[in-house]
Design brief:
- This is SoxR reducing system RseC family protein.
- It is a single chain.
- The chain has one domain.
- It is elongated.
- It has a five-stranded antiparallel sheet.
- The chain is of the alpha+beta class.
- The longest helix is centred in the middle third of the chain and has 30 residues.
- Helix 2 packs antiparallel against helix 3.
Length: 156
């Protein structure tokens, strides 16, 4: 289970809004002074991520300002990444290969076959992601409550 700590910022119809802060791993890396990612992360603004977390009926909603841990199943994350990146790429390559076999190398049909097959793969991904029974699998869940943050208590 991949987990992230966040803070409840509000209540929605289906659950609570949780805000998480992006964390960079550059502080633990020895190459941080010569790394392009480390340099870019110093200049980029770190915007928090805001996610709606479904809370099942009957469970108490965490209070606004409360720190929580949210998580998503690793296998669901890996499946979705493989589907999102792998399926369009493989379908595009197969479309290009088929177009080359049918029309011959060096023709305009090869990039056109690649582009059309890539678009078809993206449409399949979009259709798959829009199915309601699949959406629940990829949603982060509330794992545990950590309590109120000292800054949030002062604000209340």
């Amino acid at each position: 289970m991949m987990q992230e700590e966040g803070q409840v910022t509000g209540h929605g119809k289906e659950g609570v809004w949780v805000e998480t802060q992006r964390r960079s791993t550059c502080g633990a890396c020895n190459a941080r002074s010569s790394c392009g990612s480390g340099l870019l992360s110093q200049f980029s603004r770190r915007k928090p991520h805001r996610v709606l977390i479904h809370v099942p009926a009957g469970e108490d909603l965490p209070m606004v300002g409360e720190r929580v841990v949210i998580g998503i199943d690793e296998s669901a994350f890996l499946r979705s990444a493989g589907l999102l990146y792998g399926l369009p790429l493989v379908s595009g390559m197969l479309g290009g290969i088929v177009a080359e076999q049918l029309a011959g190398a060096g023709t305009l049909a090869v990039p056109l076959g690649f582009a059309l097959s890539l678009a078809a793969g993206l449409m399949v991904v979009r259709w798959h992601a829009a199915r309601p029974e699949r959406q629940a699998l990829y949603r982060p869940r509330l794992m545990r409550r950590l309590g109120m943050d000292a800054m949030a208590i002062k604000a209340l």
